[in-house]
Amino acid sequence: MKIYRAENYEDMSRKAASIISAQVILKPDCVLGLATGSTPVGAYQQLAAWCREGDLDFSQVKTVNLDEYKGLSPENPQSYRFFMNQNLFSHINISMENTHVPDGLEADSQKACQAYNEIISSMGAIDLQLLGIGHDGHIGFNEPGPAFEQETHCVTLTPLTIEANKRFFEKAGDVPRQAYTMGIKTIMHARKILLVVSGQDKAEILKKAIQGPITPEVPASILQLHQDMTLVADEAALSLFTE
User: Above 80 in pLDDT, residue 243?
Assistant: First the structure.
């Protein structure tokens, strides 16, 4: 595991964007696994800036996102498809047909998950998977539980995750209770994993995930076993680490 210590959120974002851009430059037709949430926004802004300046070309890149709320349309401002369009896709020269997010409007969970598994499988291995971490250690929407989930599945969100996400909605009652998410097995099959973490509020769970025991009660702890895992975190997030 490689660990890069950043001074702050802005520095973390630049470092993460540099790693992603290197992947795109070295393999122009790479498959990127992408994440949503506030943490990767800075990295996406930096990637978009480099693309506008002509330093990055996304024309051959394909993407698969980790997750999507069940029941939200792509046009819903709280959907993850809308998030990706607003924060990255509409600012780079990527073909929208090469960008993939689970179908939140598919009511049949089995059908939705199977369809997304087939999309991922058709691309071969994900070259680089970008991840954030939840306050309970979830990655994607893989919540703490008795076992590591394998492929795309429908998950019922925990109260902690709903609480964390309610800031994006008018009220907590508007937060969807279920989501489709890429499974742990699929994430771990990515050739490279990039975990980005920022803030003092993530320090305790990050220490558990990276320096604690590997357990499905802390889903991100499985990342300790990946052969090419990079952590980019700011000083606050790393404040509880032991050298």
Answer: no
